[in-house]
């Protein structure tokens, strides 16, 4: 997955809401005269992710901000900007994931835009998800899971053996246990 793909997917998801009227922008389209209402999407940081995807991908937890802007001159602007911000958060939560980890809403709050825009009210929706950036494991390449060692005691003889268990693989498939231990 690439950052470009993530931006396209997130912009597409937010544009599906009726109120945005398709006015969802990223960095290069941000300008002084803003349409109202609109959303500005920005990737703000990336940290080490809790997930491990494997392959050569960089596993990161990406933090994003969707800024909801509305003209202060709009009727009920104070209420509308809040409604639109929470609607954006709900839409992102509905999306679930963008080919990566599940989207987590961090907070919905008033925001001082990086460069304040006179005449606009701005609220932000901060969200994050884990994602593998770059190349991932090829389809024919095996996934490498952490190995666990399990000590097992044989039911009849009392002998103990160490079994290697990879990921969530069952060390004792029913067929092997029944066939291997002579259970009739």
List the helices and strands and how they pair.
Layout: H1 3-15, E1 24-25, E2 38-48, E3 58-71, H2 77-95, E4 104-110, E5 120-133, E6 147-153, E7 160-166, H3 174-180
Parallel strand pairs: 1-2
Antiparallel strand pairs: 2-3, 3-5, 4-5, 6-7
Features:
STM4215-like; 21% helix; alpha+beta; two-stranded antiparallel ribbon; single chain; disordered C terminus; 34% strand; 5-stranded mixed beta sheet; elongated; 184 residues; 3 helices
Short description:
By secondary structure, this protein is an alpha+beta fold. It has three helices and seven strands, in the order αβββαββββα.
- What is the CATH architecture assignment of the largest domain? 2-Layer Sandwich
- What structural category do the secondary elements indicate? alpha+beta
Distance between the termini: 51 Å
Number of domains: 2
Query: How large, in whole angstroms, is the Cα Rg?
Result: 25 Å
Task: Kindly state the percentage of residues in helix.
Answer: 10-25%
Mean pLDDT over the residues: 69
CATH topology of the largest domain: STM4215-like
- The SSE order reads HEEEHEEEEH
- What is the molecular shape? elongated
Assembly form of the protein:
single chain
Residue windows where pLDDT falls under 50 for at least 5 positions? 141-150, 162-184
């Amino acid at each position: 997955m690439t950052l470009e793909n993530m931006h396209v997917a997130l912009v597409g998801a937010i544009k599906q809401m009726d109120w945005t009227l398709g006015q969802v922008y990223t960095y290069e389209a941000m300008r002084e005269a803003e349409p109202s209402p609109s959303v500005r999407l920005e990737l703000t940081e990336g940290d080490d992710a809790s997930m491990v995807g494997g392959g050569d991908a960089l596993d990161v937890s990406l933090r994003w901000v969707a800024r909801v802007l509305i003209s202060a001159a709009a009727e009920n602007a104070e209420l509308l900007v809040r409604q639109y911000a929470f609607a954006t958060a709900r839409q992102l939560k509905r999306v679930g994931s963008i080919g990566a980890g599940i989207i987590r809403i961090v907070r919905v709050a008033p925001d001082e835009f990086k460069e304040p825009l006179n005449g606009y009210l701005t609220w932000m929706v901060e969200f994050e998800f884990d994602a593998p950036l770059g190349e991932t494991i090829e389809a024919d390449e095996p996934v490498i899971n952490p190995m666990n060692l399990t000590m097992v005691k044989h039911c009849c003889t009392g002998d103990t053996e160490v079994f290697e268990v990879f990921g969530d693989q069952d060390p004792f498939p029913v067929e092997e246990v029944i066939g291997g231990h002579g259970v009739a």
